[in-house]
Design brief:
Layout lengths: L7 H17 L4 H22 L3 E5 L14 E6 L3 H12 L7 E5 L5 H10 L1 E3 L16 H4 L7 H34 L7 H31 L8 H9 L12 H19 L10 H32 L1
Parallel strand pairs: 2-3
Antiparallel strand pairs: 1-2, 1-4
Helix pairs in contact: 6-7, 6-10, 7-8, 7-9, 7-10, 8-9, 9-10
Amino acid sequence: MPKQKMSSDELSACRKRLEQVWKSRVMDEGLLHQAWHTAHEVAMLLYDEFNATQVFVFGSLTEPMGFTKGSDIDIAVSGLSNDAYDKAYGKVIYFDAPFKIDFINFDRLKGLFRERVKHQAIPIERGVQPVLWQTLYKHLQRQIFPTEDGDIYEMNRKRITQRINDELDKIDGILERIQRGLDSIDVLPVQAREFIENTIATDLADVYRGIENICLRIAREVDMHVSSGSRWHKNLLAQMTEQRSERPPVISENTFLQLEELLDFRHKVNNIYGKELRYEKTMPHAKSIDALFASVSKDLGLITDSLEKREGDN
């Protein structure tokens, strides 16, 4: 049953509460220090072992007030061949660190996503010792610490829309890796099949993680509510099917059912050792993942259109 539409006064009060929540967010200085230390270690690995020409951070770590324990570290690299990047990818995403690391090849990026990464990028130079994390944000001072109260929620809404699109572009890159795996699996020796299936299974788990990151951002910054407990992953999906005062449903019921299956698969990939994992569902998921991602992207188009419309109305 649809929720009753809020009055203009109720909507105004809701927005003021959201703005106050946004203003009251504080930076976890210890977490930021740890995150930048990790980013610097990864950068040195890319420079020393793979001779990268440039390494930089983008995404959530460039926004210190929004970086949390659940945030990823987004790292881009330039100057690597496709083969070198694929080898580096395996080392970076499994880097021993308390954070999940997203890793992209900047030289392969195109269009708006490339421009956004360039705009956000904070470089980590070769041979330069780590500096105090505060000094890294000076060029973003106006965006990070807004001084006009009226801009806070609108600016947040713009950022949500951008981050959704950025995450979708990153997922698109993972889908390309999955397709390369599918293209290879029938031509490589049988002995290599398990390795390829393992890689594809991990990439499928990363696709779900990217979609979940989008849902978490919407839950935290639009709904202002994230479920807790052991079933929070599934509860989050269910929450995304609901209509809220500040947004339409994020995903359809049909997309929800498909994502629920992928979530179950992701859980097995993350919690079962490779030798014990059965791969009979890997290929069906891999062959249908493009269609599922198209459905997710179509659904998310409604939420980004809604956020942009609200911005234009103000």
